[in-house]
Specification:
Layout lengths: L2 E10 L5 H10 L4 E4 L16 E2 L4 H5 L6 H11 L6 H20 L23 E2 L5 H16 L3 E4 L3 E7 L5 E7 L5 E11 L10 H5 L16 H8 L4 E2 L7 E2 L30 E3 L14 H9 L5 E7 H6 L9 H10 L3 E4 L2 H8 L3 H17 L18 E9 L6 E2 L6 E4 L2 E8 L7 H4 L9 H15 L10
Helix pairs in contact: 1-5, 1-14, 3-4, 4-14, 11-12
Length: 480
């Protein structure tokens, strides 16, 4: 017989949005059940850089930076080319300053260089990106103690437990959830409200192309980011949106032996020209260049990558560049690189370009002509793609190639929600099924782009907001 429990609130997912939702709800006296599929709390905070963004903070004012939520909103819409959801962006930027102040008041270990303008994504016009010294773990160091305190009171945490079904009543009401515990038994939890914060599907190589227009998956997400919350909601009648707004991160190398999981973001090659100008060339699977490698707009490079076969490109260089250029892999030792070139399928080296092409599957004649044309551009100073940084030809054996993928840590598509973060069903919003975090899709707040801080900060803000809303409290949690 299936066990049945009754609570005020069920939170599916103990990550960036789920933890603050449970903390706020418990603070209002609700009985909360938190269901987490993994064996620990934290979700993507264990893998994310956890960039934050907010306009009009005390930290900005202390550094003489004049900013506001209105300016933040305008910048998000500019970067996303108006493809982000303006209603959700407005909600996010209005709550962002209070969320950041709350983190700092709670002991957040802010990096002293923050806020800043960063260039891994298309940059803001003002310094409004923040981050902790330990990346995502800095956020978790704030959330975990508060959540642990809540678990000593009215919050129950079930780890290793999977959402199976959202049990509905009619087309706009959820009665509760059915979950599967680690021992395989099923458990029904009845609740007044269910908040989905179960994350995206960027760890599921089978589901990713189904929700992302057929694009292949490559990225550093946890396999636990499997989209199960989205699948369960769709089975209950929820709608998905954002499938067409995928833009890959420019680069990322697979882990040895994996067909989709990349190395950690910290170990990606340095392909951002604002921090390291390129000495190499980037060629597609055929052996053709397709972009100015030093293009200052990462959006330009990422959109160019969208048109390349399988979203793959090779970074090609020679012995002189490996010896003289700033490190392409700053976190890798020379010994680690040597081992990769000896055994890793994404790394190739050869004594001449034709042999390099054979080792990588590129067209030998085309690769040779591509390199020759680039070398001529180095001599003339005129590059057909408009590249201006032309430090050296690619001419000294041995030659090297490293396979990169258009990658992603967050999934673009997600559950459609209204301005109150209620999940939209076939005939309008569910009354008591709400969602926050990556489960509503990264593109909802960044559009067909990457906008710094518009994943983690809204997840924190929306989680706090919904936790209080579940208790019928003022939905502006403020800064404390």
């Amino acid at each position: 017989m299936t066990e049945v429990t009754t609570v005020d609130l069920v939170v599916i997912g103990a990550g960036t949005a789920g933890l603050p939702a449970a903390i706020e709800a418990a603070g209002q006296g609700l009985r909360v059940a938190v269901i987490e599929k993994a064996d620990r709390i934290g979700g993507t905070l264990w893998r994310s850089w956890a960039q934050l963004s907010a306009g009009g903070t005390s930290l900005q004012r202390g550094k003489g930076i004049l900013d506001s939520p209105d300016l933040h909103f305008d910048d998000v819409m500019r970067i996303s080319k108006n493809t982000a959801d303006p209603t959700l962006v407005r909600l996010a930027v209005d709550h962002a300053p209070a969320t950041l102040e709350w983190l700092m008041a709670s002991g957040f270990d802010m990096d002293p260089d923050a806020p800043a303008v960063l260039h891994f994504h298309e940059p803001y016009l003002l310094p409004r990106t923040y981050w902790g010294r330990k990346a995502g773990e800095s956020v978790l160091e704030v959330l975990a103690p508060a959540f642990e305190k809540a678990c000593a009171g009215s919050v129950t945490l079930e780890l290793g437990t999977e959402l199976v079904t959202l049990r509905t009543s009619g087309v706009d009401q959820v009665e509760g959830v059915t979950v599967r515990r680690p021992d395989g038994t099923f458990h029904d939890i009845d609740a007044r409200v269910v908040i989905l914060t179960s994350g995206g599907y960027a760890g599921n190589p089978e589901l990713f192309p189904q929700f992302t227009g057929g694009s292949p998956l490559a990225g550093p997400a946890s396999p636990g980011a499997d989209g199960s919350g989205i699948v369960a909601a769709v089975a209950a009648g929820a709608r998905v949106r954002g499938q067409e707004r995928f833009l890959p991160t420019y680069g990322g190398v697979l882990k040895s032996g994996s067909r989709w999981e990349t190395v950690h973001l910290n170990d990606y090659p340095a392909l951002t020209p604002q921090s390291r100008q390129p000495w190499e060339i980037h060629v597609n699977a055929r052996g053709e260049r397709f972009v100015a490698e030093d293009a200052p707009s990462v959006d330009d490079r990422e959109n160019a990558l969208l048109d390349q076969p399988d979203l793959k490109f090779w970074v090609v260089y020679d012995a002189a560049i490996r010896r003289e250029a700033p490190a392409l892999f700053p976190t890798w030792s020379e010994q680690e690189l040597d081992r990769a070139f000896a055994a890793h399928s994404s790394f190739a080296t050869a004594g001449d370009l034709r042999a390099l092409a054979d080792a990588t599957g590129m067209d030998p004649g085309l690769l040779s002509r591509t390199v020759a044309a680039y070398n001529s551009a180095v001599v003339s100073g005129e590059d057909a793609f408009g590249r201006t940084h032309l430090p050296a030809p690619i001419a000294e054996a041995p030659f090297y190639a490293v396979l990169n993928h258009g990658s992603t840590l967050k999934s673009p598509a997600g559950l459609a929600v209204d301005s109150q973060l209620r999940v939209l069903g076939p005939e309008g919003p569910f009354n008591n099924l709400w969602a926050a975090g990556e489960v509503i899709g990264g593109s909802s707040l960044s559009g067909k782009s990457f906008v710094s801080g518009m994943s983690v900060t809204p997840a924190l803000s929306f989680g706090r907001l919904l936790g209080r809303r579940a208790a019928g409290a003022d939905t502006d949690p403020g800064s404390m």
